[in-house]
Amino acid sequence: MRPTSKPESPALKARTFQCMGTVIGLTVPMAGNDDGGSGAAEEALGTAADAVERIFRELDGQFSLYRPDSEASRVARREVTPGETSAGFRDRYAEAANWRLLTEGAFTPERPDGAPDLSGLVKGYAVQEAGAALASLGLTDWCLNAGGDVLVSGSPIIGTAATWQAGVMDPQDRETLLAAYPLGGGTTARALATSGSAERGDHIWTRATGPSEFLQVSVAAADIVTADVLATAIVAGGLPMLNRATDGWDVQVLAVRRDGGLLATPGFRA
User: Fold this and answer.
1) Domain ranges (residues) in the chain
2) Which is more confidently placed, 169 or 31?
3) pLDDT digits (tens, 9 = 90+) for 158-214
4) Residue 10 CA to chain centroid, in angstroms?
5) What does the buried/exposed string (b/e) look like for 90-113 if buried means 16 or more CB atoms within 10 Å of the residue's CB?
6) Quick one: which of 14, 97, 154, 237 could link to 7 by a disulfide (CB 3.0–4.6 Å)?
7) What whole-number distance in Å separates Cα of residue 132 and Cα of residue 134?
8) End-to-end alpha-carbon separation of the chain, Å?
9) CA dihedral 33, 14, 195, 108 (to 10 degrees)
10) Which secondary structure element, helix H or strand E, spans residue 57, and what is its range?
11) Is-contact 59 122, C-beta < 8 A?
């Protein structure tokens, strides 16, 4: 997923880095048509990108199960219990457990062996915290994309109600866009998250034996954690969870079946 306006456009500038097994990008509009030549604007973008990167790296260092020195890995190896972890770890675990209740078990904070696995929540939480950091720096117009988890503020055209267009890629052809969804500007939706097996294989724990009936699920919502959790829950819980999500939350959903068929709520069909 990516903004359909290209970051290399004269009106937009971007900074990227790799973390959490994906590419994180911050895109901001530049005032005027000077191709972002203002030293002050470039410095502000660099400061903002550094703040975003610090948040992601700190959370990755705490929650990654691919890093043997992380707090999550120590819990998985049963060197410490969840109750002996830091307050931040316990808070995220409690939040994930609450989402398990809200989704009737479709979203889970544990692996099948019982070890805590908060990967379905942490990336969205990192995006949320990075967005708060950008706001604290005084930035009002930006797009943050963390491997398909997109959160925006304001507009790609400073001083207007123009929307950011978040593109949803075809999981069977990564060069093709299935849809573009408007975020920010004059809309209430600021976030769009995509979960599935197209990039990382079948990695989401499902209730049924075998792979999910959905190859990819995209959810648009007002906040990124809701979008991210529900996208993961729908992949895990299938059609019943998709119906539960659209009945219980103010979201729009685009789901790709394994045979290439699409299920879309009205917001994606507009």
Assistant:
1) 2-269
2) 169
3) 999 999 999 999 998 888 999 999 999 989 999 999 998 655 444 454 555 566 899
4) 26
5) eebbeebbebbebbeebbbbbeee
6) 14
7) 5
8) 19
9) -130
10) helix 39-63
11) yes
The band of 8, judged by pLDDT with boundaries at 50, 70 and 90, is: very low
Q: Is 248's pLDDT higher than 70?
A: yes
Alpha carbons within 13 A on the beta-carbon side of 232? 26
Give the up-direction half-sphere exposure of residue 196: CA atoms within 13 A in the CB hemisphere: 23
**What integer pLDDT is reported at residue 198 of this predicted model?**
54
Helix (H, G, I), strand (E, B) or coil at 73: helix
Q: What tokens appear for 241 in the block? A: 């969870």
For 5, phi then psi, to 5°, come to: -70, 130
Three-class SS of 190-258: CEEEEEECCCCCCCCCCCCCCCCCEEEEEEEECCHHHHHHHHHHHHHHHHHHHHHHHHHCCCEEEEEEC
- pTM for the full model? 0.89
pLDDT of residue 201: 45
Dihedral in degrees, nearest 10, Cα atoms 135, 156, 151, 184: 90
Q: Which among 44, 16, 18 has a CA at the least distance from the CA of 30?
A: 44
Q: Is 163 left (phi over 0), alpha (psi -120 to 50) or beta?
A: beta
Instruction: Say which residue the tokens 């950011």 belong to.
Output: 164
Structure tokens given for 144: 């943050």
Beta strands at 149-153 and 191-196: parallel, antiparallel or unpaired: antiparallel
Quick one: 18 exposed, middle or buried, by C-beta within 10 A (0-12, 13-18, 19+)? exposed
What fold is seen in the domain 2-269? Answer: T-fold (3.10.520)
Residues facing residue 18 across a β-bridge: 23
